[in-house]
Amino acid sequence: MKQKLPLTSAILTNRFERRTFVLGMAQASVGALLATRLAYLSIFENEKYKAASESNRVNLSLIPPRRGWVLDRNGAALASNRADFRVDVIPDRLVDADDTLSKLSGLLGLTADKINDIKDKLDKARGFQPVEVAAKLDWDKFAAVSVRLPEMPGVIPQRGYSRYYPTGPSVGHLVGYVGPASAEDYERERNPLLITPGFKIGKDGLEKHFEVRLRGVPGARRVEATASGRVVRDLGTREDVPGQPIQLTILGGLQDYAARRIGLESGSVVVMDCATGDVLAMVSMPCYDPNSFSDGIGRIEWKMLSEDDHVPLRNKVLRGLYPPGSTVKPLVAMAFLEAGLDPKASVNCAGGLRVGNRVFHCWNHHGHGSTDMLKGIYQSCDVYFYHFAQQIGMDKIAAMARRLGLGQEFPMPYPGQSYGTVPDPAWKLRKYHKEWAIYDTVNATIGQGYMLVNPLQQATMVSRIASGLQLTPRLILDKHAAPPPSMGFAQDHLDLIHAAMNEVVNGRGTAGKARIPIENVLMAGKTGTAQVVGLQHGNGKNVEWKRRDHGHFICFAPFDKPRYACAVAIEHGGGSPSAYPIARDVMTYLFDPAKAMAALEELEQGWGGNVQQRMATRYNAFAAQYGTSAPRAPDEAQASKVVEDENKPAPEPSAAQTDAAPPAPEPDAPTPQPTPSPGTAGGPATPANGGQ
Amino acid sequence: MRRAYIPAALSRQPWGVLLPLLMLVLFGGAVLYSAAGGHFQPWAATHVARFFVFLTMAMVVARIPQDWFRRAALPAYGALCVLLVLVELIGGIGGGSQRWLNLGFMTLQPSELMKPGIVLVLAWFYSVLPTGETRTWRALAPPALLVGFPAAFVMLQPDLGTALAICFGAVCVMFLAGLPLRWFLGAGGAGAVIAPLAFFFALHDYQRKRVLVFMDPESDPLGAGYHITQSKIAIGSGGFFGKGFGHGSQSHLDYLPEAHTDFVFATMAEEWGMLGGLFVLLVFGLVLRWGLKVALRAPDRFSRLLAAGMVATIFFYACINMMMVMGLAPVVGIPLPFLSHGGSSMMTNMVCIGTIMAVDRWSRRGATGLS
Questions:
Q1: From CA A579, how far away is CA A525, in angstroms rounded?
Q2: Which domains does chain A have, with CATH numbers?
């Protein structure tokens, strides 16, 4: 109806007034809406936004706690902390990674392979996981980075503490190493400390096992910072609480000495206290340097370690399994005695023993003549043991082996020890569904065949034989531990075995050169040469390194009042002569450190320096040869996995053995020349038993 | 109310609006003083000084006779269009994105002046349009062209906020001019259809992103949602009484972006709380109410539409800015009148105020002073 009416100016004015009113109302309701919204934000959501504003304003940065020290029995540091300056980058905050890295490399003097290592880590790092660029910087470099921070977002220089292992590789397998937490670690723990630059967690060994105790409580620094991260003022700092120390039974000096004394060989040394079972030294060499491992594993170092056939990543003390060879003979003799065998009972050794229509040879094909127990041990006559083992039976021998610690797992703070095999007829039937054969007994009594032990078990065995006490290896110092119980052996049995073992070294035995150069201290021992499982080529000496015989030596001193027991195992050393000179010098160190050290220093001159010097030489050779072309190092997670895999228990042979192993020779023969392994940038080879 | 000892020229001024406005500007100066970390430079001093310069200008504008306005409407519009094109060309030649002219004491964006310009030219158009034509296409097509050209040009710059402001002022004038209601309803319906299409085809990526992030600021708290998130934190953390003058951590620690321009309301609300926000709303309410009252009292169609259009322009600024900082509208670069630091917007708003004051004068011709 309105449309029919002509529009007049009055109608338009009226319409204007109405519409102005509508517009005014609309504006008023927008005003009301805004006021409501304002009230909602500032009253009802005030708490939420206040918190958000505070978390904007206040920047909380964690201060990594100082890690607890690892101490030796006298309180000397095996692992400590060193104040240092370090530089990290946070991948998420980097704007131009390449540009920043090239600036940093200029300021810090980083080499090309180091830059590549950092780039690898940056590629893998997630979010705010910091990546270490350099640590242990001097003040000048640190200051140079600090003043140029505004040009390099994402770079974090800070002063903190880094883990320091004063004796480096000597304690690598013993203590383990630390490293930045992996993504998996963070997933598991969800602790912001783990992604704090400079914080490291235990990756292996004691560092990993005692992580909770060693870690401590982080400190915190609260600052007011701008959106771009510039600190406006300090709001306060809470000091960190350092982690608890752990005191080990280890004797630091001895540990280092033994590690150095192993020299170019691949092997292990365990020294135990005969009164308590305290482990005084537990060395596996060669080893990585936990200092440089803790700084992050570089590609050159990784190549060097992973290509070394001396398996530096494996802790041979706990995870190396070897046929013990003739070192089981005192044990077998003990079983004979316990079974009632008269030690005077003798057998004529003509170089072999005929059983039925087979002849089992003695290592000495010329024969030992009439042999009783004493001579059987010190001359290591195989025929004596073959003969009486047939009479006594394998079950008694196996029981004695277990009683003395073989095949047993000890409560050591390391994951997964290999505890080897002590075979007996029931075991063979269970495992291979085959009857026990004569040759099985023959093998077992000379420590070959199925018999496999690790060096810690060997040390435990000899310490139990030496002391007659049921010693259990102990790594954590406990001054109030209960004294170990007796084994229950008859003293005259022990005396006989001790006398025989004394004869091995100090009399007519197989290791005359193992006599220790100390007045009034006589060391008793037993040699052992074991053939490499499944490799029966040549005589185990003048063949390639991998096929040479293992050398063993177990000993204790003083023989009449045992204080220390020691077991040495040298992989592919070419027989026991590679082992007992090391045992002799390590034992000498316990009684006269200066004399032992003098002998060692002379040896090291021939080897091309001490462990660290040789590793440095080798590193430089690798760096010169491969430089940046070395394949990238695995990240920390993968590396610790590889280290773990190296240390998995060795599998038992899957096929049953079908024959007797020919006994390895046991003479006090000239030592073969230890050939440097491929890639070892060592000096000229010298006899391992030098410095007699 | 008139007092003999007050000069007529002074007493005739609309103090009921000028005093609240002055308080708002001084308040803005205080906020800018704090935002600069307790310094008059670089923002607070120029802010207040500019206000007085433009207040003088507004008073001069207020004395211009209606006739001049009518005669200047079309030429002024034309000149602004030429300036828009010129600036665009200079910017294009310079290779940069310069969209302003440097006048020495301030930089001038012609697109800013186009906001009151479009209101002026449309008010003139409808005042000369024969009454009977209001329902025909002749009431729609020429204004559409008048709006379309500058709006499209500003949109191309690209400056979505200003383009919207121009369109909003124009639509308000057309609405108040009495165009049939169903046109607006139809346009609204069409807009509902076109908006999604425009969203996907006409908007720039960054504008599209702003809209998306507006829908869900938390989706991108460090990127495009950062502005809104930080602004809400600033306002919300202020509470009722605020954190106190000079204690706004969001603005002082640079978490709040554009703390002295587009997000000045958040800077203010953090330190002065909801109380400060209500004060700002109150002053805007007073100014707008005064403007609409002037429009209703205006003597003729031209001045009515002119005054109401100016009110709509100021309203649009304030409304969109405050909705934006409180997370009710997408982030478009529109400053808050009288609080944000910036010469162009201050000038535009004071031109609007001056024009309304002029309309006020015309309606009181012969009548007595303060209402």
A1: 11
A2: 61-245 (3.90.1310.10), 252-646 (3.40.710.10)
